[in-house]
Amino acid sequence: MKIQYSLFDTLLEPVFVLNTEQKVVYCNETAALVAGLSIRKITKGMKFCDLFEFSEPIEGLNELINVCDATPYKEVTFKTPQGGEGKVQITLQPIFDAMGDKNWIVFVRDVTLEERLQKKYRAELEQKEGVIKALEDAKAQLEHYSKNLEQMVADRTRELSRLNQTMSALLDSLGQGFFIFNPQGHILDVSSKACENTVECKPDGKLIWDVLKLPTNKVEGFKKWMQTLFMEMLPFEDLAPLGPTTFEHSQSRNIALEYHPLRSAEGTMDGVVVVASDITSLVEAQKQAENEKEHAKLIINMIKSKREIHRFIQEAQGLLMAIREEVSKDEGPYDSESLYRHLHTLKGGAALFSVTEVAESCHQAETILSELKDNWTHPAFIALRGKCFEIEDYFFKFLHETREILGSSALSEERQIEIAISKLNDIARKVGTLPGGGAVAQELLLELAMEPVSRFLEPYNEVMLRLAERVDKMMAPLKITHGSVMVIPEIYNSLFSTLVHAFRNAVDHGIELPDQRVDLGKPAEGQVEVELEVLHQATPRPLLQIRIKDDGGGIDPSKIREKLAKRMVDTRNKSDHEVIQHIFDSQFSTRDQVTDISGRGVGMDAIKVAAEELQGRVWVDSELGKGTTLLIEVPYITEFKKTQTKTAAAA
């Protein structure tokens, strides 16, 4: 017969029954209390040694099979993994049942049991007393609440009123229209003041489709969308964009509509928040950006297809004349088919070259014309006439804005041709061999091959202004005297391109800071002037003289001498004028440190080399505190020789 361990259930002392593997096969409630675990968990295969950590080894515990008699009680302290601790007396005793199974009973006398139980019962008592006190406090609070309920209701009402006022103020401060509609389409009495501008009404209490001014034939579709939205058959984010995205404003404002779910604490959707935003400025900015993009395309087209755009301009001018002739008639009769054909042709050409405003106006005129064909009215005819005149205005605006890119040749009614400068020179030479042809040849070159020098110098004004801003200086606009002197560009391009160094040096080295200039009695703005002159009396041939003068601090000869001394150059027998000519030496600079502006000593050297390649010369005059003048003299050449094609190619 198997032993009924339940006999130990009534014992107040902890009792554990272990098998040969030290696994607990039984424990009473007191034992579970000491271990800090439930009986079920302990007897589900846990070992006794896993329940406690003893201060000393328990005799026989690790070799239960050898324990044949009861062991004497041993007093030890213990700790449990759950944080419990105490002092106990332990004994082991073997037990056999009728089936021959051998187990061991572990009797545990908890020395601290009484104290533990007292703590437990005291805690339970305190807990009960706490519950009683809490009930008494709750009763007192309930009585107090009942007595002051009327006052609390009044206070709460005032609080809600303040909250509503705050909410209204917040909503009214928004620049966007804000309102909410429920599943039935009714708009709640919560909206922002901006609704009066965005959706042109106060929407409170109205139906959503009336506020959005939906046409009658679209209301049913809107209701189905709204029903699907509240049923949440699909994610809100997927369904929301299917609703109306814009509001048709009476003043042509661009109003965008957005939808957001309004959910309860349980997560169900109680309403939909509509946000109406005036995005007119954004739309205009986007349109402006698109126009600028189209303008960039237009410029590219003009550069790449100059001949084709010239043909378009000539054709467009003829079409505009024909369109004006048609719409200038007094209400008719006019050839609508011919007018439609002219508009369509002009629109195609304008779109091809990204003349957007002309193309769009042509399209609008076509629309008005189509409506006129179906239903002729005098106001529509006046609108068509106005639109056609608008096309003409946009076309001439296009010509004005692109004049610098297209050049005057694009506006000419005659076909323009291009000719190589070398071929033109050959023609001029042949003409010059004819009797009396010398003057004709010279005039031919002057008219077709030569350009004013000012055209090559004017861009340096922007170079100086940008550099002055970087170095905290102030510059007056570049002054050019006798800039109408005509030259053949291919001959002088190399020289003109090196002059950038002269203008940069004038700003960086010559012109003083504004405060210094004022202290010296000079204007705060520095001045650079270019003077051009053709010296016809020079021998053996005329000379082109270029003088670049600044009113800066001038060149200090002593600094030049100091720099040259470091380079082992003897300047004792040289005048100040001779010394300052060394600024043209290769890799000579008055700067101690190299910057991205100057300091490498190659700028003035480059000007000198370019002038000498033209059989010319350069020098510099300077007066300390007054300024510096760079002088360049090169032969004034008015014939383009074949030997100069290399120079032209390099340019």
Describe the structure.
The structure is a single chain. This protein is α+β, with helices and mostly antiparallel strands and 651 residues long. It is built from 26 helices and 18 strands. It has a six-stranded antiparallel β-sheet with strand order 2-1-6-5-4-3. Strands 8-7-11-10-9 form a five-stranded antiparallel β-sheet. Strand 17 (617-623) and strand 18 (627-635) form a beta hairpin. Helix 13 packs antiparallel against helix 14 (378-401). The radius of gyration is 51 Å and the shape is elongated. It starts with 14 loop residues before the first strand and ends with a helix.
Please specify the SSE layout and strand pairing.
Elements: E1 15-18, E2 24-27, H1 29-35, H2 39-42, H3 48-51, E3 53-54, E4 74-79, E5 85-96, E6 102-110, H4 113-147, H5 149-173, E7 177-181, E8 187-191, H6 195-198, H7 208-211, H8 216-231, H9 236-239, E9 246-248, E10 254-263, E11 269-278, H10 280-304, H11 306-327, H12 336-352, H13 356-374, H14 378-401, H15 403-406, H16 421-432, H17 437-448, E12 451-452, H18 454-457, H19 459-470, E13 479-481, E14 486-487, H20 489-498, H21 500-510, H22 514-519, E15 528-535, E16 543-550, H23 557-566, H24 576-580, H25 603-613, E17 617-623, E18 627-635, H26 645-650
Parallel strand pairs: 13-15
Antiparallel strand pairs: 1-2, 1-6, 3-4, 4-5, 5-6, 7-8, 7-11, 9-10, 10-11, 12-14, 15-16, 16-18, 17-18
Helix pairs in contact: 10-11, 11-12, 11-14, 12-13, 13-14, 16-17, 19-21, 21-25
